[in-house]
Write a structure and sequence with these properties.
The chain is an alpha/beta fold. It has a single domain, classed as Alanine racemase (TIM Barrel, Alpha-Beta Barrel), CATH 3.20.20. It contains 9 helices and 8 strands. Strands 7-6-5-4-3-2-1-8 form an 8-stranded parallel β-sheet. About 40% of the residues are buried.
């Protein structure tokens, strides 16, 4: 079913939208099936699990870290991670920069914006993002590049609320894009809400259960 699910989703996507196949908790055979169907971008939310899968699978896969980061574990993925979605502090950016430097790389990052009205979600306010991007300390970091933003909407069926949350981040993204030329990725949308995220301006979606089926945990 994984192949069929993937192809069905891909057919429905505008050309400018990148599909990140969220394979967290899923066994290698599932990722191999997606790989055989042509998928090359995978997202994981635990560093250790991503490292194990990276070691076991073909090296032309692009690995995206989509989970909340534990700073002390950044070093384990610094040699291969392609994009880190969930960065929500300058402190974490500094750690990523430090580890990237050891491998002579530049690591692309997305700042996670808080768009959900729920209290529990991680993320930065738009003001905090602007403060980071214009700080001296940030401008000194040569081994990271902030290439866009990531947002998670409230877990709700209320389409209007979802659209308001996505559209707010899109508007902020557009505004900052005029000043920060490196910004080109807006990561919004999961299995339950990606069509709406795309119509609200997302160009990168993170889809797990609609491809791989439901997870038992996480
Ligand atoms: C698990 C996860 C997803 C995928 O969720 P699905 O509902 O299974 O598509 C997307 N983004 C993040 C940050 C996640 O942790």
């Amino acid at each position: 079913m994984i192949k069929e699910n993937l192809l069905k989703i891909k057919q429905s996507l505008p050309e400018n939208v990148t599909l990140v196949a969220v394979s967290k908790t899923k066994p290698l055979v599932d990722l191999q099936e997606a790989y055989a169907a042509g998928q090359r971008v995978f997202g994981e939310n635990k560093i250790q699990e991503m490292v194990e899968k990276y070691d076991a699978l073909p090296k032309d896969i692009q690995w995206h870290m989509i989970g909340h980061l534990q700073r002390n574990k950044v070093k384990y993925m610094a040699h291969f991670v392609d994009l880190i979605h969930g960065v929500d502090s300058l402190k974490t950016l500094k750690e990523i920069n430090k580890q990237a430097k050891k491998h002579n790389r530049t690591i692309n990052c997305l700042l996670q914006a808080k768009i959900a009205k729920e209290e529990t979600k991680f993320g930065l306010s738009f003001q905090e993002i602007e403060a980071i991007l214009s700080s001296e300390e940030f401008l000194e970091l040569e081994n990271i590049k902030v290439v866009g933003f990531m947002g998670m909407a409230t877990f709700t069926d209320n389409q209007q609320q979802l659209q308001e949350e996505f559209s707010a981040l899109k508007a902020f993204f557009n505004k900052l894009k005029t000043q920060e030329t490196a910004l080109n990725i807006l990561s919004m949308g999961m299995s339950g809400d990606y069509p709406l995220a795309i119509s609200s301006g997302s160009n990168m979606i993170r889809v797990g259960s609609s491809i791989f089926g439901n997870r038992n945990y996480n």
